[in-house]
């Protein structure tokens, strides 16, 4: 069964993968791109930023279940992850603003992309950019699907463990109930025996009392004949 710290590590790995991808796009690819290709990269970065936001939320949930003795080290990692995400959000926003400003002003880079004599008249460059974007989106979707399947399997395993624990607890309860029933039967028998012994004791006391009374009467009779009729 996975512990909160184990799930934290799993989400941290996914987050690290996203941060590396964002670093490659925002600090590398975008600087060497222009036009539609640059916009497509920025859109993919926005999607990854949203996904990173979701993972941060999961990390905040998992850290609540981590024992307080080791929680500070995980809290420090979560704080650093938030700082990295905030930095890349700001960088993405700045790059998008720069791209929009370049489009509005008709910068030389944008004009060069539109008017280059090597442009494909059938817009093959745009198709290639869209194809690359689609391929990366599909890859990201496949990775998220794999992560969802892993979480589903982990949840299924946890459910199976819970069912096994409940089965063992039910068996223990049934054994305890049988033991209590046997003890109750034994107590009932012992109670009957004690009651019989008490009745027998009372009978013996009555008989002993009668014997004493008879002896007293006999002694009185003997004394009467010896003393009165002498």
Can you walk me through this structure?
It is a single chain. The chain has 230 residues and is mainly alpha-helical. The chain has helices at 4-29, 35-63, 71-105, 108-115, 124-228. The protein is rod-shaped, with a radius of gyration of 45 Å. The model is unreliable at 107-123 (pLDDT under 50).
Question: Notable features of this structure?
Answer:
single chain; 230 residues; mainly alpha; Methane Monooxygenase Hydroxylase, Chain G, domain 1; 5 helices; 88% helix; v-SNARE_N_sf
CATH topology of the domain at 4-119: Methane Monooxygenase Hydroxylase, Chain G, domain 1
What's the CATH H-level homologous superfamily of the domain at 4-119? Answer: t-snare proteins
What is the name of the CATH class of the domain at 4-119? Mainly Alpha
Please tally the helical runs, counting DSSP H or I stretches of 4 or more residues.
5
Q: What is the tally of beta strands?
A: 0
Corresponding CATH architecture of the domain at 4-119: Up-down Bundle
Can you give the mean pLDDT? Answer: 81
Strand content range: under 5%
Helix content: over 70%
The oligomeric state of the chains shown is single chain
Q: Please describe the biggest sheet, giving its number of strands, its sense, and whether it closes into a barrel.
A: none
Report the span from N to C terminus: 106 Å
Shape: rod-shaped
| Rg measurement, Å | 45 Å
């Amino acid at each position: 069964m996975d512990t909160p710290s184990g799930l934290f590590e799993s989400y941290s790995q996914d987050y690290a993968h996203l941060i590396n991808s964002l670093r490659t796009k925002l600090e590398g690819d975008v600087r060497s791109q222009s036009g539609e290709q640059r916009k497509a990269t920025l859109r993919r970065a926005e999607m990854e930023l949203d996904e990173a936001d979701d993972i941060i939320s999961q990390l905040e949930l998992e850290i609540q279940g981590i024992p307080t003795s080791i929680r500070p080290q995980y809290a420090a990692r979560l704080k650093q992850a938030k700082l990295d995400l905030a930095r890349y959000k700001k960088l993405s926003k700045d790059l998008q603003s720069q791209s929009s400003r370049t489009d509005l002003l008709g910068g030389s880079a944008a004009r060069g992309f539109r008017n280059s004599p090597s442009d494909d008249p059938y817009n093959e460059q745009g198709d290639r950019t869209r194809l690359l974007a689609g391929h990366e989106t599909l890859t990201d979707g496949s990775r998220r699907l794999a992560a969802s399947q892993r979480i589903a399997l982990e949840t299924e395993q946890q459910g199976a463990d819970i069912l096994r624990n409940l089965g063992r607890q039910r068996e223990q309860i049934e054994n305890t109930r049988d033991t209590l029933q046997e003890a109750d039967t034994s107590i009932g028998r012992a109670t009957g025996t004690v009651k019989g012994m008490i009745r027998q004791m009372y009978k013996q006391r009555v008989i002993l009392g009668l014997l004493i009374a008879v002896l007293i009467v006999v002694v009185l009779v003997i004394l009467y004949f010896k003393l009165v009729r002498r």
